[in-house]
Design goal:
This protein is of the alpha+beta class. A seven-stranded antiparallel sheet has the order 4-3-2-1-7-8-9, sandwiched between helices. The protein has a two-stranded antiparallel sheet with strand order 5-6. A hairpin with a 6-residue loop joins strand 3 and strand 4. The longest helix is centred in the last third of the chain and has 33 residues. The protein is elongated, with a radius of gyration of 25 Å. The chain starts with a helix and ends in a 7-residue tail after the last helix.
Length: 413
């Protein structure tokens, strides 16, 4: 029976090992994308000088609006708890477009633009750089290969544990050690065996959640196992997720996310609501009614009731409050308001959200390692890098074994 598991472990890993390495490595590179992007483009994401009072939100939005072409409208603005962060102004198009504005001076500091390196890593992670439109109908080759390779990786991890257990019973300490003093062959073997065990929980968590973006049948089964009925994505929640991803520069790695976060048409459809606003509408003595006139009032009221919220997004007739940076990082409360009076109607609390929407947030948070904040993200980074090394060390061990078998027998006199 053990021979069977060894063969499964080897002959599934050999053809897909390189793809597994690429997917794990590119995923690792995306984990700290937000922080790296903000550090490199600090002039876009941070204000030059923090002042006591920000300019009124309506005034800022009118400033941004005057710089946009007529075909593009403002769909919302995200305000971060960090007063040094610029406001993020979300636009109707192109997809996931946004600008950043200094809330103290009114200066537009730049636009959302993913760094080239991270854009390449994301495409590699999700589609193996497949140039076909990943959001169109049908399964794309790159996406399919990523999904199949991830399934193979799960099987390889499980069979690896089955092979490891008998050895661990005999020499447990040795089975978890990586020697750096006994030569390269011993080191690579230790890294493969012990490294695989150290990374097991993390890479399994990434793989099992990542597969929900690869196959519909797997996603339905995953939700069923979790006791949740899979339902079409809630557009309001999709809008919140898209804004959250974009604020973190992940584009869904999800953010697609990405950790995790996953780019798609849902977010675009969700944010299209009321994007034409009331341009040109008049009320009260013939004076022009600004579509952003009540945004500051709504923000102030919501902020007063949610002083610890990491970010608040005010949009056309709605506002969302992100609840935290740990656990389900996509958890949010949603408010509706009257755009004329600014009166806020009863909120839709996260606790009352559709279970499928909650699970989506947890899947994203687990896949990207953001569920425990900085600590778990560091663990996920190390786990993903170890996961990327497993096929390479496996190839080394396999090739060494083959060459050893082919060595000619010494001639005897």
């Amino acid at each position: 029976m053990m021979k069977f598991f060894r063969k499964i472990h080897l002959w599934l890993s050999v053809p897909f090992g390189i793809i597994i390495t690429l997917v794990c490595f590119s995923g690792a590179m995306l984990i700290f994308e937000p922080e790296i992007t903000r550090a490199i483009k600090s002039d876009v994401y941070y204000v030059a000088d923090v002042k006591e009072q920000a300019l009124p939100m309506g005034e800022l939005m009118e400033t941004v609006k005057s710089s946009l072409p007529d075909s593009v409208s403002i769909t919302g603005v995200t305000v971060f708890s960090n007063k040094e962060r610029t406001y993020q102004v979300n636009l109707s198009k192109p997809r996931r477009a946004s600008l950043f504005v200094d809330q103290y001076s009114g200066e537009i500091t730049g636009k959302y633009e993913r760094l080239g390196f991270f854009s390449t890593m994301f495409k590699l992670h999700r589609w193996l750089l497949d140039g076909a439109n990943p959001h169109g109908d049908g399964m794309k080759i790159g996406k399919l290969l990523v999904g199949i390779s991830t399934l193979v990786f799960v099987i390889a991890l499980i069979t690896g544990v089955v092979i490891w257990v008998p050895r661990a019973r005999k020499k447990f300490g040795r089975s978890l050690s990586i020697s750096v003093t006994k030569g390269w062959p011993i080191f690579w073997k230790g890294l493969h065996v012990a490294g695989g065990m150290y990374a097991l929980v993390f890479v399994l968590a990434m793989a099992l959640t990542g597969l929900t973006w690869s196959f519909d049948w797997y996603r339905s089964a995953f939700y069923a196992v979790c006791g949740v009925e899979h339902t079409p994505r809630n557009f309001a929640q999709a809008n919140t997720d898209a804004r959250s991803d974009k604020g973190d520069s992940r584009g869904g790695r999800g953010g697609e996310r990405h950790r995790g976060g996953r780019p798609g048409g849902d977010g675009e459809r969700g944010r299209g609501r009321g994007e034409n606003g009331e341009r040109g509408n008049r009320h009260g003595g013939g004076r022009r009614h600004s579509e952003f006139g009540r945004w500051q009032q709504v923000y102030d009221e919501i902020k007063a009731n949610n002083p610890d919220a990491p970010q608040i997004t005010v949009a056309q007739e709605s506002a969302t409050v992100t609840l935290g940076t740990t656990g389900n990082t996509r958890a949010s409360d949603r408010y509706e308001f009257n755009r004329r009076s600014g009166e806020i109607t009863p909120a839709t609390m996260y606790a009352d959200s559709v279970e499928a929407d909650k699970l989506r947030g947890w899947i994203y948070s687990i896949h990207t390692g953001s569920l425990g904040g900085l600590f778990t993200r560091i663990l996920w980074l190390l786990g993903a890098l170890l996961g990327a090394s497993l096929p390479l060390t496996g190839y080394y061990i396999w090739i060494k074994h083959l060459t050893k078998k082919k060595k000619p027998m010494p001639q005897t006199a």
